[in-house]
Amino acid sequence: MLAAGVLAGALTPGVEAAAADPPGRSLTTREAIDWKPCPRDAAAECGTLRLPVDWARPSGEKFDLAVARRKATDPDRRVGVLLVNPGGPGDSGVDFAVRRAPSHFSADVQEKFDIVGFDPRGVGGSQPVRCSQELLNQRPSAYPRNQAEFDQLAEYNRTLREDCRRHSGPVFDHADTLSVVRDMEALRRSLGEKKINYFGHSYGTLIGEQYAEEYGDRIRTMALTANIDHSLGAREFLVSSAATAEDSFHQFVKWCKSTSSCALHGRDVTAIWDNLLARADRGEIRDPENPDQVLTANAIAFAAFKEYFYGPDWDELATYVAELDAQEPKARPPSQQPQQPRPETSQGAVQQTTAYPFHAVFCQDWRFRPKDYREFAGLTKAELRAAPHMRGAPRTHPAVAGCVGWPNEVNNPQHRLRITEAPKILMLHSLHDPANNYAWATNVHRQTRRTTGLLPYEGAGHSVYGRSDCTRDVVDDYLTELKIPSAGSRCGPAAMN
């Protein structure tokens, strides 16, 4: 629970009595945000909220939470605030509110809600976690082949962790989602709202789920899409992630077989794909945008997963695979290393550090600590069995590998959800989500059946809200009119490209 105490250092302080709040669940002051026009769009307002780095020590060191707001376009019909988080971990809620919300949400939602985005601590404008670019460029393979390579991975992760802590300050040790939940509650108070509405996507659903656990009585509505199941162990997490990526591959093959515009139509797509990855294993496939770089099989699988499955963009994926398959074999020079995915660097002059919050959040939210090569190899084999064509889980495998060697203590370890005070929460999830297995949503719903309603979208892709008129209307009716779809309701698949 939230420690009681005084929150200091506001830009524009305002005092609010907290007598009505249960002990330990709120601050004794409310800090106001000094709103100003956002640099990227003057129609939106930006500001910061001064908050404790460690909620167990509210009078200790502070950081500035970056916040953005788009006011309801029809003040006479305003319902309240809609807090939003687009996922990650590491995506910017400020960027979402300023740049993406006008095209993402319907006109009805924009008329009735102040849309408020915030950058979770350690992300974007909220004291971002930063790491040495040179050290990030030295990242070893996430697929160690023996105990010695496993030990090298663990040592590298420990070195990187200390480097990121040094460059980021104390926020690095408190970047977990439970701390973000407490930040969100402070933001509610700062906005002067008795109850909030919340829209969370993907990793943003974990923020919503845990806010509902801690502060369920502060919620008016909460819509969660592409849901995270925070009760999973390492094997379940990796295998279910691999299985859903493999399912998306089969959805692509099925589409290509029935669609004449597919660049691989009329051919054995699965055989072409498997052969392409085998050629990549031999060092024969190069990056079309950087011919000097060799692509590994895992890099190709990750590109298909992240760049094309999420949409899904089947046409573009078919073209990408066809172009790689058409390459003439070229042996890799002995000194050249396969290309590994790199974190994004800042634009402009060469940067010594790079924003890299992922593992600061992930490794404090999940107790995934394979202790030796034998255990890690067992997890990898289970992945491969679940996804032989995708070579396991393209994203979650390196995520778990990045926690090898970290301390065993976890700020926000997995547990079954226990929501007791929240109103009915609306969950939507694609049956063929490439990243978050549909079983994650059914598991969360099973844990919280009295407080959640789950509506399946019967198509593919990671995003859900704007997928069809059905998915959009269900969320809009819930947020604006408190309408929950009846049990057994579903939204059919939208037309594919």
UniProtKB/TrEMBL annotation:
Specify residue ranges for compositional bias: Low complexity: 333-347
Positions the record marks as coiled coil are: none
Annotated transmembrane regions: none
Swiss-Prot/TrEMBL keywords: Hydrolase
Residue segments, region Disordered = 326-350
List, alphabetically, the InterPro entries matched: AB_hydrolase_1, AB_hydrolase_fold, Pept_S33_TAP-like_C, Serine_prot/Carboxylest_S33
Single annotated GO MF: hydrolase activity
Instruction: Tell me the protein's name.
Output: Alpha/beta hydrolase
Q: Would you identify the family this protein belongs to, as annotated?
A: Belongs to the peptidase S33 family.
Residue span, AB hydrolase-1 domain: 81-279
Q: Which Gene3D superfamilies match?
A: alpha/beta hydrolase
Q: Where is the Peptidase S33 tripeptidyl aminopeptidase-like C-terminal domain?
A: 400-491
